Target: Methionine import ATP-binding protein MetN
Amino acid sequence: MTAMVSLRDVSKVFDGASGPVRAVDGVTLDIERGDVFGVIGYSGAGKSTLVRLINALETPTSGQVVVDGTELTGLKERGLRPARAGIGFIFQQFNLLKSRTVAANVAYPLKVAKWPKAKREERVRELLEFVGLSDKAKQYPDQLSGGQKQRVGIARALATSPALLLADEATSALDPETTKDVLDLLRRVNRELGVTIVVITHEMSVVSYLCHKVAVMEHGKVVEQGDVYRVFAEPEQPVTRRFIGAALHDRPRPDVVARLRERHAGRIVTIAIRESEATADIIVTERLRAHGIDGHVVFGGITEVNSRPLGSLTFALGGPDAAIDAFLADLRAHTEVVEHTPDGDDAGPATKEVGA
Model:
């Protein structure tokens, strides 16, 4: 299957006050048709420049950008217009025209595309119904909540029936409940309309809830990419581990471990929860009983990534050392286990530790 978006060794260099700035550095990436693809990174990682290269608002310094079978690299403005018509864009701050009604905002790209008035009005009604704002057609943006404004933005982005939708930090101005509503709408756009979506964000929660695949950016480079669950469950790069640790808060810091020791006797152990441990709480308790030791949860957190569990639980274990050692060896055959030793030298696969 031909990729919807294909980047080959793409770089973008800007002239900065103190010299050239390489905002995107040798990125090679394929985004398949029908995917919801997340691009995640901290501020300055190059995410927004990357999305502007995809919709040809920026021209690459080097490399090749192909969108929906059309190579954008080197095209003149006249050639770029039809390519951009197949790409919808959702903005962080909505970018609605305050002087126009909701219906007129959605109709604007259709008017630019010279659709007949009757056809425009029919399409606007259809889109407002899809995003749940049929009753807001005659209102103005200032009369809407943030979530409603973003729904208008999504309807406007879908006006010309694009095959590709780009969302640049589309939920970062919204509260958590409204964010979920907008992400659920984007899920519908993908599933019901078959639109490929590229989500640019610094929020792991957005990627874990919405995306199928993810690329992690740092200093203009894609440092890690793949299936969302695989990348978050088995992070290879420090920046990915920082994202996961900051989002999950599932592993105790050394100062927290010290406080846990003051409150709980026994050995403190953190056990990773992965999809194969979907019933890990039952499995762990069964194995505790099987090895004749006591254990209770003293810290942890589990979230869902693509409806699959991810996180860790920290236990205080009591019983004979030999029995605890056998229990930990048993678990290590199935998942990651880190023992927090009194001297702070955690025993376990340090290369897989998550968080800071």
User: Anything to note?
Assistant: The longest strand covers residues 3-16. Residues 183 and 206 are 8 Å apart (CA to CA). Residues 349-356 have pLDDT under 50 and may be disordered.
